[in-house]
Design goal:
Blueprint: H1 2-26, E1 32-36, H2 43-59, E2 63-67, H3 74-81, E3 89-93, H4 96-103, E4 115-123, E5 126-131, H5 140-149, E6 155-158, H6 164-176, E7 181-184, H7 188-197, E8 202-206, H8 207-215, E9 219-224, E10 252-258, H9 263-277, H10 280-288, E11 292-293, H11 298-318
Parallel strand pairs: 1-2, 1-3, 6-7, 6-8
Antiparallel strand pairs: 3-10, 4-10, 4-11, 5-8, 5-9
Helix pairs in contact: 2-9, 4-11
């Protein structure tokens, strides 16, 4: 009798294991939902829609991009964290995956335990800009010298507390040992408007939104926040090479799926995304918004995320940064 029940249980378990492997191998058999946790039109949205179109063809199923904005990306991220781990819901996110656990005391998900990494996708540098009418501010050294001459009087705008634009300013003032006032806005657009109007002095804006104003001559680029120069603004030096050695704030975008998603599905999705990033038409779309495709293995993304969590945790804690 015991042998019978043991055999029955054994084959039942074996059946479901085989079924799970089979489903993973067949994936995808229906459309995939790609959550963008911010409004349409930004760099994250453009990146997702470009790659979704390309990867849909290689996977043989539609990838449908859905915008779920709110709470600094937490609404869309939580939705994915609570979704079935079957490969049919995925998330594109940014540096908030590393910073939000420190900015939001009651974060409804764990950025490591509730997600499985798929791939780094792109870097979109921030660029330190000022109103082009300012006559004596053309280099990083000028910014630092002026700030030291007027402690606490000069300002830099951001798209909100805890954004990469804000964090870029915090790292800059800390490394340069200067006192500048942070002015948070509800989004990049109103911050840029006031920068253009002369209400604030500087901004570490995303290259995506700053580039048109740089091209028109209304904003003057001073330095890129990344360690490498950008193909979109090849003549603009990095902050690190032009007055503040070692400075590095790299806004990144990456793809995650719910934790426990089968590794075979993650591998297939990773191959599709990384291959898509190498396509000339995708590179062209990325370059138009200042994004630089990078790609990675899931393991590399996991390591990178842990390093980012550790780094930004220190910055946010030391500077007592809050989400509002």
């Amino acid at each position: 009798m015991y042998k019978f029940y043991f055999s029955k249980a054994f084959f039942t378990i074996l059946f479901f294991l085989c079924a799970g492997v089979s489903n993973a191998q067949e994936w995808p058999t229906k459309s995939i939902k790609w959550i963008v946790p911010f409004p349409p039109g930004g760099a994250m949205d453009v990146i997702a829609r470009s790659l979704a179109e390309k990867s849909s063809k290689s996977l043989g199923q539609a990838i449908i991009v859905e915008n779920k904005p709110g709470a600094g990306g937490n609404i869309g991220s939580e939705l994915v964290a609570r979704s079935d781990a079957d490969g049919y819901t995925m998330l594109i996110t940014s540096i908030g995956m590393a910073t939000n656990k420190y900015l939001y005391p009651k974060l409804p998900y764990d950025p490591v335990k509730d997600f499985a990494p798929v791939s780094l996708v792109a870097v979109v540098p921030n660029v330190l800009v000022t109103n082009a009418t300012q006559p004596n501010v053309k280099t990083v050294s000028d910014v630092i010298a002026n700030a030291k001459a007027q402690p606490g009087k000069l300002t830099y705008a951001s798209a909100g507390n805890g954004t990469s634009i804000h964090l870029a300013g915090e790292v800059f003032t800390s490394m340069a040992k200067i006192d500048m006032q942070h002015i948070p806005y509800k989004g990049s657009s109103p911050a840029v408007t006031d920068l253009l109007g002369g209400q604030v002095n500087y901004m570490f804006d995303s290259i995506t939104s700053a580039k048109p104003h740089i091209a028109s001559g209304k904003l003057r680029p001073i330095g890129l926040t990344t360690l490498k120069r950008s193909k979109s603004l090849p003549g603009v030096p990095t902050i690190a090479e032009s007055g503040l050695p070692g400075y590095d704030v790299t806004p990144w975008f990456a793809v995650f799926v719910p934790a426990n998603t089968p590794k075979s599905i993650i591998a297939k999705l990773n191959r599709s995304l990384v291959t898509g990033m190498g396509a000339p038409e995708i590179k062209e779309k990325f370059e138009a918004i200042g994004a630089e495709p990078i790609g990675s293995s899931p393991e590399e993304l996991a390591t990178y995320l842990n390093k980012e969590i550790e780094r930004w945790g220190r910055v946010i804690t030391v500077n007592n940064i809050k989400s509002d």
